[in-house]
Specification:
By secondary structure, the chain is of the alpha/beta class. Helices cover 39% and strands 11% of the residues. Helix 7 links the parallel strand 4 and strand 5. Helix 6 runs parallel beside helix 7. The longest helix has 20 residues. The chain is globular and about 45 Å long.
Length: 256
């Protein structure tokens, strides 16, 4: 509509002399005495459109992504995001240190959190303490940053059973928390529940697994930003969690 109004002003204000320098600069415009426009009709039907120019729409707006990760996905390239998404990656060795990025989070559309395994494995944080911290943090964010979408990347299995027991409990808790807070989403790496992807330390994953997560994560967040729910490529969630989500009458990824 704004372009249309500008074009109408240009057509009616330009001189009728076809040799005018102004006319030469705007070859698509015609002399004013030949302009016969039904303003109401043209405006409503949008028949006049800028030549070879994309019309700006809300979906064209660049949205910001803050990717907070520990060493597990440290080789993930933020340049993988495109199609209207601009990503900035920062290190988050311990999940409990996430508050240091609050100034960034407050002005970000999507915050991807791929951290938490070091809290459990390296720092031996009791699962009850990690759950308590997460509950408080995401509850605060639901109030202070309601327009920011937080995407928590599920913790992967390891070669250490005691770690797996804690990560299973924590993953389940964060998923259930995502059903309570509409701006918290649980991104589930359940497809990678096998130990063939692990390196010798039993914690870190190989490059093939990292590429798989990167491709899937970028695709899922891109679809989310476009409000596009592809039945052939749904938000990654293990079947048992999907059933719980449906019981809440809400698929987490699209509870806008």
């Amino acid at each position: 509509k704004q372009w249309y109004q500008r074009r109408v002003r240009a057509l009616t204000d330009y001189p009728s002399d076809p040799q005018s320098p102004d006319i030469k600069l705007h070859k698509d415009m015609i002399p004013s005495e030949k302009v016969h426009i039904d303003f109401q009709y043209e405006e409503e039907e949008c028949l006049m459109k800028p030549p070879n120019t994309a019309v700006a729409t809300p979906s064209d707006t660049i949205k910001s992504v803050l990717f907070l990760t520990d060493s597990l996905l440290s080789t993930f390239s933020s340049s993988k995001f495109n199609q209207g998404l601009k990503c900035k990656k920062k290190g988050l060795f311990r999940l409990v240190d996430i508050r240091k990025y609050m100034s960034d989070i407050a002005f970000t559309d999507y915050v991807i959190i791929a951290s938490g395994i070091n809290d459990i494995y390296k720092f031996r944080t009791p699962i009850a303490d990690l759950i308590s911290f997460s509950s408080t943090f995401f509850e605060e964010c639901a109030r202070s940053c309601p327009r920011t979408k937080f995407i928590f990347v599920s913790l992967l299995q390891t070669n250490h059973e005691w770690v797996n027991n804690m990560t299973d409990d924590y993953n389940t808790y964060i998923f259930e928390l995502s059903l309570r807070f509409p701006n918290l989403l649980f991104y589930d790496n359940y497809q990678l529940v096998n130990r063939d992807i692990l390196l010798d330390d039993g914690i870190h994953i190989n490059e093939k697994a990292i590429k798989f997560i990167a491709k899937s994560l970028v695709r899922a967040v891109t679809n989310l930003s476009l409000c596009y729910n592809d039945p052939q490529d749904p938000w990654p969630l293990r079947p048992s969690f999907t059933q719980k989500a449906l019981a809440f009458k809400s698929i987490p990824a699209f509870s806008q």
